[in-house]
Amino acid sequence: MNVRLKMILILTLFACISGGVLSVVYIVSNPLIEANMLAEQDRSIFLVVPEAKSYEEVTKSGFTYYECKDQGGGTVGIAMPAKGNGYQGTIRLMVGLSPDLETITGLAVLEQVETPGLGGRISEEGFSGQFKGIHTDPAVGWVKNQAPEKDTDIQAVTGATISSRSVVAIINKNIGELKKVL
Amino acid sequence: MSDLNDTRRGVFGEFTKGFWKENPILVMILGMCPTLAVTTSAINGLTMGFAVVFVLTCSSLIISIVRNIIPKQVRIPAFIVIIATFVTMVDLFLKAFLLDLSKALGPFIPLIVVNCIILGRAEAFASKNSVGLSVLDAVGVSLGFTVTLIILGGIREILGMGTFFGMPVLGARFERWVIMLLPPGAFITLGFLLGAKNLIDRRMEEKRK
């Protein structure tokens, strides 16, 4: 057989088999992957708005958030997904807010690639737990190496000011945008 | 590489060479990108290693079966298609069943496609040898890779976090060496491992004389 023809045939054959196999694997695994993503979303929303029993996705002028409801259907808070740049890469957060957006009810760090042991500690309860009850007006702030005095401030992770500052900046930016659309 | 393969070492030798004599990390210095980047903990090393065991074994198996029908001009694209298929399978599997590990390893799972250990074994071994030998070679080399990653990840995790596979081993009073978790820690540890391997080899050589 002509070598050129054989090259084309063999590569086409390989690509088709590969595509077929991958389609099957994708069909099998995709529902599981989506269920994982949804479970993670559920977990983080109920973590940051502890009073919530159910939630509803709302998209207003391109901004997506979750309206959290109690058993009676009354709004108990808002869970706001937020992302932005950290020290080394993207940080993704889920921020729980009171319905009037004045108080943070909880914070979950969904994804981050900060320095392990330094900036990576923003995922630890010692840092993210501080946000519970923090006031957002006029803006969330941070202090270094001392206990915060104002009710809008949190304490930055020692040695990881940039990561801590990034989290605060992402929260402030997204609350600002949410206030505009609500 | 081919002159190394020409030396007769028997079936058992094809399997064991990956652990010491032709260890992909310590001797061939291949696959440095995942080696340095993901070994911040022993479990990351283990997962990365197993992903490579699966991809290398499956792709060496397929490549050694089809080696005679692939025209040599298009062998590299054909190998890459085969390798990429298995890598995508691993990536989807991790996302479906081990989401946390998949996140920890990030882009380094998809990047196994361009890991030179895999293409290296395909080109240097699987495309020239029988199915049985190719699988033995692949399993041996990838397990050697896995063991080395666990050692590297284990040392960095113990010194950097005071834990091994997540279990505390050095006590709460241990001051963590954060640098071991950072990129310099990877280079330093790898350097010491390379030095140790060469030292042991030299000692054994001297004893033989």
Task: Summarize the structure in words.
The complex is a heterodimer of chains A (182) and B (209). With 182 residues, chain A is α+β, with helices and mostly antiparallel strands. Chain A has a domain at 79-181. Helix content of chain A is 39%, strand content 26%. Chain A contains three helices and seven strands. The longest helix of chain A is centred in the first third of the chain and has 46 residues, at 3-48. The N and C termini of chain A lie far apart (69 Å). Chain B is an all-alpha fold. Chain B has one domain (17-208). Helices cover 68% and strands 2% of the residues of chain B. Chain B is built from nine helices and two strands; from the N terminus they run ααααααααββα. Chain B has a two-stranded antiparallel sheet with strand order 1-2. In chain B, a hairpin with a 2-residue loop joins strand 1 (163-164) and strand 2. The radius of gyration of chain B is 18 Å and the shape is globular. The interface between A and B is medium-sized, with 24 and 28 residues.
Q: Descriptors for this entry?
A:
heterodimer, A: 5-stranded antiparallel beta sheet, two-stranded parallel ribbon, B: 209 residues, mainly alpha, two-stranded antiparallel ribbon, globular, disordered N terminus
C-alpha termini separation of chain B: 27 Å
Q: How much helical structure, as a percent, in the residues of chain B?
A: 55-70%
User: What is the total domain count of chain B?
Assistant: 1
Q: Profile the largest sheet of chain A.
A: 5 strands, antiparallel
Major beta sheet, strand line-up of chain B: 1-2
- Going across the major beta sheet of chain A, what is the strand order? 1-2-3-4-5
Itemize the secondary structure elements and their pairings.
The complex is a heterodimer of chains A (182) and B (209).
Chain A lengths: L2 H46 L5 E7 L2 E7 L5 E11 L4 E8 L6 E8 L13 H4 L12 E3 L9 E3 L5 H21 L1
Parallel strand pairs in A: 6-7
Antiparallel strand pairs in A: 1-2, 2-3, 3-4, 4-5
Chain B lengths: L1 H5 L3 H7 L15 H7 L3 H25 L8 H23 L1 H7 L10 H11 L4 H31 L1 E2 L2 E2 L14 H26 L1
Antiparallel strand pairs in B: 1-2
Helix pairs in contact in B: 2-8, 4-5, 4-7, 4-8, 5-6, 5-7, 7-8
